[in-house]
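Re: the 382-residue chain
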Amino acid sequence: AEATEARSTVHEQDLAVGLLVIARFKGQHLAWCPGKVGAFDTANGTYRIDYDDGDVEEGVARIRIKTPGQAEKGLIEANTRCEACVPGSKPQAPTVPGVVTSANGDGTYSVRFDDGAVAMDIERKKIYVLSVTPPPRKTSIMPQQSKPDLAVGDAVAARFGGGPDFYFGEITAVLDDGTYNISYADGDHEEGVKRLRIKGKEDQMPTVLVEGMRCEARHGGSMRAFDGVISKVNSDGTYDVGYDDGDKETGVARELIYVQAVAEPSWSAESDGSFSPEATEAIHRIFATFNASASSEGKWGMAEFNAFQEALAEDPMQTEEEFSGVCGSLEVKQDASGRVGAEALVALYAQTDGLREDLRVLGLLGPDGRLAPARKAEGAGV
């Protein structure tokens, strides 16, 4: 009944004459062309579009038009009006109106076309639904990436249309609003893709989420995803989500939440013994953690080194001679009081390549594989 009603509805005018838009010329797949609204036909709820290249098209359905800032919903609910590419049709054939009858759970949808034909497994990227203006985004607890970290020509994988599956492609443009245009390996193109939906070459998906992390979540387990923020991490492995539109949801399963993949930094030393900036910061963080006593004077003696060893569940040294032997093996000189600076820890990790594991054991490695934020008064108090 809902699908039948959707077919008979005449769209009311919501685009003013003269408004700048982009529209799919003749309903062709991916044929988005810039223009402006020329007129509205009250009889059938369609528009006339005057394109920038001089073409004029009458009878353009609202579903074929986008205004600045509008986007399609990534995941589609049952009984949603749509236009879709008919399986087996030619690339330039117009999309055909119909209704999405169900989501198949694998990124495809079943569609019943208005002529009665049914297609059971149409990819999300070949289905068009009405574009809408997203609600204003609230400030997240965790700052979002302020500068683009991907460049034109970068090989990526992205969740086309915000769906669950990643498709290989290439960045073709970096936009001023922090989104990207992507040309996919199968020939499709998508504009204004959020960074959260893109995986760079070195990016990995976080296995554990933290409070304040930006996300997209499928509210109520539906196939439709909404922007929001992780507001709480629950002990049972679920999460609470605060949505940008003001709604809140508790106990959301991990598989219903999408977050931004991030590149884990290199924790290993280069051939010259140097480390990446984040690894260097991590080593100094460890050094400071076990350098908290007033007597340490900014350096480690055997007591600080033993506290470090014990925190890693390793055997402590028994004598000062043993400590001096370790310093000698690291080619680090002790001062007059027998202490060493952070360069000793740098040399240790250059030899052992155990920095990442030690960060994990010490609780200094974040769930995204990066260095966890510093805590106030961090220190072991040795």
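The two ends are 72 Å apart (CA to CA).
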